[in-house]
Amino acid sequence: MTAGGGKHILVAGSANLDFVVRASHVPAPGETVLGRDMATFPGGKGANQAVACARAGGMPTRMLLALGEDAFADPVESSLREAGVALTVVRRNDAATGTAFICLSDDADNAITVAPGANASLRAADLPPLAKVSHLLLQLETPVEIVCTYALAARAAGVQVLLNAAPARELPRQLLDAVDVLVVNEGELATLAGHPGSLVAALAGLEVPCVVVTLGARGSLARTNGEVHLQPAFAVKAIDTTAAGDTFCGALAARLGQGDGIRDALRYASAASALACTRLGAQASIPARAEVEALLRKSPAACASTYEALAAYCGLR
Q1: How many domains does one find in the chain?
Q2: Domain containing 174: what range?
Q3: pLDDT tens digits for range 158-174
Q4: Does 240 show up as a binding residue in the annotation?
């Protein structure tokens, strides 16, 4: 399916150049670890999700982003355009292009430090027209007040708002009230729910129409219209999980934009995310739509015991 009326997804958010060092393990506080090879990859949560929406989800996608006037901007912009993402670029001559410094361990764990740079300079006036936008996808690597402004503008225009509440932080009620689909991992859910307990109990405290929780190698769940949907993870050999969550968010937005229900969108996003774990890099790891569809065709439905284990972990048993 495709979105009717020539609609597209708008992603507003961060774009970085990632500096990735491979090492035996992620250093503990105060520890120095001798790394091996170092490489740069285009990244940033917003840009990763835009690439996933266009490449893995096959949905017309535009991104609003801010870049510095420096050499780091070129590979970031080129990667987005090569993925088929249309761009609304804000140039800043007083800020550097955002960067991220990533230590990637041999067991696919990572530690990430982000220097936002130009990402922090997005303004309300930068938001492009929303007339042809079906869904607005946001994250929290840009100032939260701007994220809130964009979400409220989208809500007023009748545009569905998806928020990936990452990195974890408390959010103003005004922002949550403007969100249609909230995507979080377990840590982010705990921050927003404000209390420990089962995943289902934490979900009950969030007054958002649809909440999706990613659970890494276990899978994911969604609560919408009072129903809980479980999606076990696809089994893959993971070598780098850096952009797995971003791939999930972009693919989810794309499928919702094309008219999928939450159950089908959840399965598609899970398959795209699994494939992203099998390759190095952020945007470089995001699969094409044909690859995702091939994995879905050849993967049998999860067995009952797998669903039972996931249900028990989530607090449904």
Answers
A1: 1
A2: 12-25+37-314
A3: 999 999 999 999 999 99
A4: yes
